[in-house]
Amino acid sequence: MKLTDYVCSLTSSAITDRICDATERLWYSAPNVSEERAHALAEAAKRGVRVQVALDVREDNYRNGYGDIRALAILEKAGAEVYDAPHNLVSFLIADGIGYLLFPQSRIFAEEGQGMNAVRFGISARALLIAHFFPPQTADEIKALTDDLYTEAEDEAAAEREAAAAALGAPTPALPAPDPERVQEVEQALKRNPPLNPDLKRSLNVYTTKLQFVEIEFEGSNFAQIRIHLPPDALPIKDAEFRRRLETRLRLFDLTLSEEENEEAESVPPWLQPLQEIKDQLREIRRTYLTHIKSRKKTILQTKRKSEVVEKLNALQAKIDKVKEQLEALLMEAFLDARDDLKQRLIALLKESPPKRMIGMQGSLFERGLAWEADQILAKVQMPELHKLLDKLTLRWAFYDLTWEDFRNEDFIDELLNAKVIKKHSADELRQITSAYLARSHSSIYP
Predict the structure, then answer these.
(1) What b/e string do you get for 212-242 counting C-beta neighbours within 10 Å, with b at 16 or more?
(2) What is the pTM of this model?
(3) Superfamily of domain 3-169
(4) pLDDT of residue 315
(5) Digit-coded pLDDT (tens) for 5-46
(6) Number of alpha carbons in the 13 Å side-chain half-sphere of residue 208
(7) Are 283 and 191 in contact, with CB atoms under 8 Å apart?
(8) Apex CA 304: angle with CA 299 and CA 310, to 5°?
(9) Which of 131, 194, 270, 320 could form a Cys-Cys staple with 441, CB 3.0–4.6 A?
(10) At 52, which helix (H) or strand (E)?
(11) Is residue 386 a contact partner of residue 328, using CB atoms and an 8 Å limit?
(12) 292 phi and psi angles, rounded to 5 deg
């Protein structure tokens, strides 16, 4: 065996291949596990391989990019044996008789293929790791593992000694000293943008995991603002004042209510009531869960209530989808009513300023002429397409993490405090964290 068989780079796909090649036993230990790796381990369990997995099931690991909480359900459903190893940082994979120490990095901060990340180890180390993380519980298990230790140890030890002697006899070139120019580049980069002290960052993370920005938009629901486009050649009267007076009346739906009408719930048009209910429920979600932050021009949410908000938003989205199905016929009726109303408003304006060709007309002929002129104008008016109005009706939401820049803002901390999102001791702590970091970033360690 070559030296590179012992100290090597194992990509995610290479680790998956070793899992897929296992025929009898798999032991896997890590801070946590991704969905992709969980699926590979689950498939091994389904084909009869005994799979044992030790994970550190802590919130921080998931937030820091070391796995996915959904992976647990994948493993358990497949019949893998999953164990909780609190604060475990030892990562390894043993597939049948071959074991590797693994050195995973957070997916947030690093990509694959950045260098060596695995060390193959021998039978004695395998036995010790199994004994610590997955101690055998029956006499048969103990005997099987002990027999493997003694039957395989001699041959494997001989192979390892041979590989080590070959590697020492033909050493690779020594690692170079750090390049002074590269060191200087790094120093300058760190001077321009100092890294956050780990202790300060850890303290700040307490708050970034508790709060998030959230944006919620109910789009396409403001039918009162939909206007009708009037082509330049649509009017029989070339009069700027007439056009101005008409254009003030060219909203598709006249939803302006008097004070008396607003006091009565039934005054809302029937086709608009479902949308009004959705708006009211959305307003209640904002009032109950969100806090508007003027200094950031955003709203903020306590993450412990995020699941409740998402559940309610999903329910609202389902309601919107249902309303869109029911709304088409109601909207068509309202659309036709609005067109008839627009025609009557056109007739009223034309009566005040009739076209030249109507001068001299009287009685019913004049009335019919006004209706005809109004129809001619309406025929040229570009009316909105109903299905496009409904397609625009949607609820969108997104969550954003708070950043260091947010917490540097004194007004932001004051608003959190005044809105009772955080308590005074937390506000004081945040100010101390930011002050300590700013003092550090301007200290004399950078010439």
Answers:
(1) bbbebebebbebeeeebebeeebbbbeeeeb
(2) 0.45
(3) Endonuclease Chain A (3.30.870.10)
(4) 93
(5) 778 888 888 898 899 999 999 999 998 888 889 999 999 999
(6) 18
(7) no
(8) 65
(9) 194
(10) strand 50-55
(11) yes
(12) -80, 130
Interatomic CA distance for residues 306 and 399, integer angstroms: 9
Evaluate whether 398 touches 215 at the Cβ level (below 8 Å).
Answer: yes
In what helix (H) or strand (E) does residue 216 lie, and over which residues does it extend?
strand 211-219
Q: Residue 268 has what pLDDT?
A: 61
Taking the alpha carbons of 402, 407, 412, 415 in that order, is the dihedral positive or negative? Answer: positive
For the stretch 348-405, pLDDT in tens is 878 887 888 888 888 889 899 889 988 887 777 766 676 777 777 888 899 888 877 7
* Rounded distance between C-alpha atoms, residue 18 and residue 79, angstroms: 19
Size (the chain), residues: 447
| Beta pairing partners, 397 | 216
CA geometry: angle at 121 spanning 177 and 130, to 5°? 135
- Closest residue by Cα to residue 56 from 29, 28, 39, 32: 32
Residue with tokens 């021998």: 122
In 63-148, which ranges are E strands? Answer: 81-84, 91-95, 98-102, 118-121
Burial 8-45 (b: 16+ CB within 10 A, else e): eebeeeebbebbeebeebbbbbbbbbbeebbbbbbbbb
DSSP, collapsed to helix, strand or coil, labels residue 10 as coil
The neighbour count for residue 49, using CB atoms within 10 Å, is 19
Residue 91: Cβ within 10 Å count: 20
Q: Which two tokens stand for residue 191?
A: 């001077």
Q: Bigger pLDDT: 397 or 272? A: 397
Hey, what amino acid is at 337? D
| pLDDT score of 260 | 39
Give the alpha-carbon dihedral of 267, 269, 270, 276, to 10 degrees. -90
In the chain, the amino acid numbered 393 is L
Q: Cα separation of 308 and 214, whole Å?
A: 13
- Output the six-digit token pair for 270: 């029937």
Domain boundaries along the sequence of the chain: 3-169, 199-438
